[in-house]
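Researcher: Next entry in the queue.
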Amino acid sequence: MADLVVKKNGKEFIRTTRDMVLDISHTADGIVISFKDGFLMTYSDMYMPSHTKELIRTSLNMANATLEIDVANYNKPVIVRM
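Model: Structure for this entry, 82 residues:
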């Protein structure tokens, strides 16, 4: 089963299955992860570059892969494990 893991500086914040995630979108000051049942996780970082937000957003399109999102790593924000 594919998972979604959100980390910052090596600490895990959220670990869930990919089917629980509806959408990942970027805002002016961070990202928003929308989960089933109406739960939203908003991560605010006014210094996060737009290309980092876009990489995180488009990573959700990787079917059947475990995603590890590190919101503190601007150069390599997503690790995809097949």
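Model: The mean pLDDT is 91.
Researcher: Noted, moving on.
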